[in-house]
Amino acid sequence: MNNLTEKQKKINKLIEEMEKESNKYKLKKKHSLIKDLVSPYLSSDYKHLQKNIAYHLEYTLPQTTRNLNLFGTYLATSYTVRDRLLQLSHDTQKYYTEKKVKTACYISIEYLMGRFLQNAVLNLNLEEEYGEALAGLGYGLEDIYDQEQDPALGNGGLGRLAACFLDTLATHNYPAWGYGLRYNYGLFKQSVDVEGDQVEKTDVWLQFPYPFMIENHFIRIPIGFYGSIETYVDQKTKGTRFKWHPSEYVIAQANDILIPGYGTDNTNTLRLWSCRPIQELDFKKFSLGDFKGASEKRLNAENITNVLYPNDNEMAGKELRFKQQYFLVAATLQDIIRRLKEQKRTIYELPDFAAVQLNDTHPTLAIPELLRVLLDEEMLTWDEAWDITQRTFSYTNHTILPEALERWPVKLISHLLPRHMQLIEAINWKFLENFSENNKESGKLRKKLSLIENSRDTLVRMAWLAIVGSHKVNGVSDIHTNILKDKVFKDFHKIYPKKFINVTNGVTPRRWLHACNPKLSELITATLNSNEWIYDLTHLSKLREHADNEEFQLKWAAIKLFNKKKLQKYVKRELKIDIGYKDVVYDIQIKRIHEYKRQLMNIIGSISYYSDLLKMDPKKRKEMPKRVSFIAGKAAPGYFVAKKIIKLINCVSKVINTDPEIGDVFKVIYLPNYSVTLAELLIPATDVSEHISTPGTEASGTSNMKFVLNGGLILGTLDGANLEIMKNSGEENVFAFGITKEKVDQVKQNNIEKGAYNLMDEKMKNAINLIENGTFGNIENYQGLIEELKGVDRYILGHDFAPYMEAMDRVMQTYQKPQKWWKMSILGCAGSGWLSSDRTIKEYAENIWEIKPCPLPKIESEKQLGFTDLSSQLDKRTENKLQIIKKNIEVQKENEKFRRVYKIMQNDDLN
Ligand code: NBG
Question: Does the keyword Glycosyltransferase feature in the UniProt annotation (predicted)?
């Protein structure tokens, strides 16, 4: 050592100095420096917004200012919104952690969010600033909003409800997380071919960047499948313990969407899991030339979150769907437990840390999964583990349709999740034993209550498991909850009378009035002299005083007309159909196509009306009040009957709309590719909307609520939330018809005994004749539909047809009396305060979750904080660039090329 040469010593010294030199830049206080650099808050005056937009255009996308276009500007604008949300979200999470609040965790296999940008800009209260910023760049805010595609990660009401809940939770400062799946392909895109048939195309929604979803690389969770169970003796307790050894693993990757609340800084998170392989490529196979085999594991893993199953109110009994369900709950529970432990809290505190809501039965596997974690990993006793499980979970039922009540084969579960099947059996055994102990006459009932059904296949009844493993079970409207208590879950209700409660659905007034109907929102705010209604919808009741006021009615009607004109333009552009908008009743039925929702009754009604019009004296016909009947909604690709209904609608539409005798007296229009965004256009433009399900089948319905909120009147049956709308908005303000649910069974029985056709109304028979004689194309297309109607008619269309037509007649008569009509419309809206999801969530929070709002302290002013922001660090050159951008805009506006390419790509099935 001592023999180092002088030269070596010199080298060592030099190295030492170099090391010192490089350490010079490692600042001790790096955390506070970073905080200083990015904090406190991004300024949001229009100049700063412009600079931020320019920054993202240049550095995030990246685009040069010379090829600036609408879509790029939309993306850059979205990134600036995301920046602001990120700051608020960081503050929110930090604050919740500090306060050790209890959090609601909503697990749902679907979220139908709709467009994000407009909602976020409105909720952040930055519409004026963004409007000005973008106008300066030569773009209108609406055009920018229009660039966004809907992320269609849901089928219908269940997923849209989850989205409304997230908006409310953030707006009312509730600590909450949404958990779901980030599917690569959303709900299929629908078009209609020349034959009138539905055509499905893959929704490749991730082919373009989606700025609002942030891949969180720090949250990656391993999830196991298959494998075996090890049994061993616990040295401490000498009891038997089990351990699951999965034979396959995949990774759950978190993707976060930040959810802003309206008029608050609280910003919650929707965490969507996507599946990644544990191993990207099997190098051994690759080296041996087996290229396909080398990627097999990756493809299998990615498959798990590839597609959203397109079934609404129907169980998709596929193994892959089951894997999706487990993947979702296993990742979610690990994430929740990780956050609990980060707070240095023990597993016993779980029920005080998180209230986990199971949105329908799809996430029910969370129950055996938590039990497994508590027993096998946390080493709790059964009683402790079961107590924690029950206190953590609650379950919402959204349907009573037998085809939607999930039952999974024991064989499948045992193969995929052997330990979970063992636990389900244990839960069942303990539950039934406990029941028999307390009930002498338990023999027959045991079979009915068993979580495992012994039919042709041995099946696990997921709803039964959800009930037993939760502390609260709720239905989604009064009538629906009563059916659950009295019929579907009758025996469980007897055992646990207090477990069952009702929480009627609601919708967010931010999206479904304030954003989608800005003119009406302005009028309401001006009339009430306050915008408080936006977060406390009960204020709408004050509109009652104005219901008779002629001037107010006039304004109200003018807004409806304005919205109808907007829809009319859309129909002309997209379908090349010209409809007059003056004095035409816009009658709309928009929802998934399902037999129980009875779109078939609607279209047969149109056929019958058409036939009446044809028989009329031409002079009289011309004087008839005018109506356009709109229908929109997708059918599950495998639902044959629903697809035939779409075909019939389209064929009828073609005949009626091209019949010169009919002219513009009556039209039937099917709007393809129904989406949240299309609903936002349709609902404000509606005069009357149809909610005509067979009584007792529609759990609640939520679109009915949106129509009433926007001054649309309801033509509806005594079903779901229609009944509560009647109660709150006044029976006289709803066009109700038909029998109560109690009478349905009798009618069905009569149909079976006497044959539905023999009991059918004459007008309906006549309409069916027209279908049968080929007026609307080959009868073979509709054979199945007609046979069902004539034979059993399960959804009792024949019985309800006459009252339905009579109610439609009342609608048309009333529309001729504008004063009465607008009064009904205003009173409907005035009575809809309780329809807000804010009310719904308050009930969940108080009666089920036991969580409390935790508002972030308000930031007083940006000046006070002495903000430094990213954009102010951009140098003077930015100003010059903005000038160039502005100059380029005019050229760009003419250049529609990009827009067209984008459109083509949007419609292209890349698969
Ligand atoms: C649907 C019901 C609707 C209800 C929504 C939301 C399912 C399984 N159910 O009536 O059909 O409004 O849930 O609760 O999608």
Answer: yes
Q: How confident is the model at residue 900 (pLDDT cuts 50, 70, 90)?
A: very low
Average pLDDT, stretch 392-415? 97
Q: What single letter denotes the amino acid at residue 504?
A: T
Tokens of 394: 């609650």
Distance 702 CA to ligand 1 centre (A): 8
Strand order in the sheet with 354-359: 213-225, 248-260, 267-277, 176-181, 103-107, 354-359, 393-396, 472-475, 500-502
Amino acid at 545: E
- Stated pTM of the model: 0.92
Query: What HEC string does 16-65 produce?
Result: HHHHHHHHCCCCCCHHHHHHHHHCCCCCCCHHHHHHHHHHHHHHCCCCCH
Give the mutation target among 313, 481, 697 for probing the ligand 1 site: most ligand atoms within 8 A of CB: 313
State the closest ligand 1 atom to the C-alpha of 476, by its place in the atom list counted from 1: 14
Looking at residue 312, its amino acid is D
Evaluate: CB of 712 within 6 angstroms of ligand 1: no
| pLDDT confidence tier of residue 903, bands split at 50, 70 and 90 | very low
Which among 132, 111, 108, 107 has a CA at the least distance from the CA of 48?
132
- Position 636 pLDDT exceeds 80: yes
Tens of pLDDT along 173-230?
999 999 999 999 999 999 999 999 999 999 999 999 999 999 999 999 999 999 999 9
Determine whether 511 is an active site residue.
Answer: no
Rounded CA-CA distance 337/345 in Å is 10
Helices (H) and strands (E) in the chain, counts: 39, 24
Name the residue among 97, 353, 125, 100 with its Cα closest to residue 261.
Answer: 125
- Per-residue pLDDT, 865: 38
Residues 388, 347: Cα–Cα separation, whole Å: 9
Q: What is the mean pLDDT of the chain?
A: 92
Taking the CA of residue 313 as reference, the ligand 1 atom at the shortest distance is 8
Nearest atom within ligand 1 for CA of residue 698: 10
Q: Which helix (H) or strand (E) holds 863?
A: helix 862-865
Q: Which amino acid is at 640?
A: F
- Whether the predicted pLDDT of 891 surpasses 50: no
Mean pLDDT of 797-819: 98
d(CA 643, CA 661) in angstroms, rounded, equals 29
Distances (CA, A) of 259 to 211, 850, 853, 910: 13, 21, 16, 30
Give the CA angle between residues 766, 771, 777 to the nearest 5°: 155
pLDDT, tens digit (0-9, with 9 covering 90-100), for 593-622:
999 999 999 999 999 999 999 999 999 999
**Measured in angstroms, how far is the CA atom of residue 177 from the centroid of ligand 1?**
21
Average pLDDT value for residue range 846-870: 69
Show Cβ contacts of residue 769 under 8 Å, excluding neighbours closer than 6 positions: none
Does the beta carbon of 156 lie inside 6 Å of ligand 1? yes
Go through 366-392 and write b for each residue having 16 or more CB atoms within 10 A of its CB, e for each that does not: bbbbbbbbbbbebebeeeebbebbbeb
Query: Does the bond joining 803 to the residue before it have cis omega, within 30 degrees of 0?
Result: no
Phi first, then psi: give them for residue 554, nearest 5 degrees: -60, -45
State yes or no: pLDDT of 642 exceeds 70: yes
Band of pLDDT at residue 668, cut at 50, 70 and 90: very high
Q: Summarize the chain as % helix, strand, coil (round to 5).
A: 55, 15, 30
Task: Please give the distance, rounded to the nearest whole angstrom, from the Cα atom of residue 268 to the centre of ligand 1.
Answer: 24
Does residue 597 have an active-site annotation?
yes
pLDDT in tens, 440-497: 777 789 999 999 999 888 999 999 999 999 999 999 999 999 999 999 999 999 999 9
Pick from 506, 394, 537: nearest CA to 841: 506
Ligand 1 and 524: CB distance under 6 A: no
- Is residue 444 flagged as an active site residue? no
Give every CB contact of residue 14 below 8 A, 6+ residues apart in sequence: none
CB-ligand 1 contact for 705 (6 Å cutoff):
no
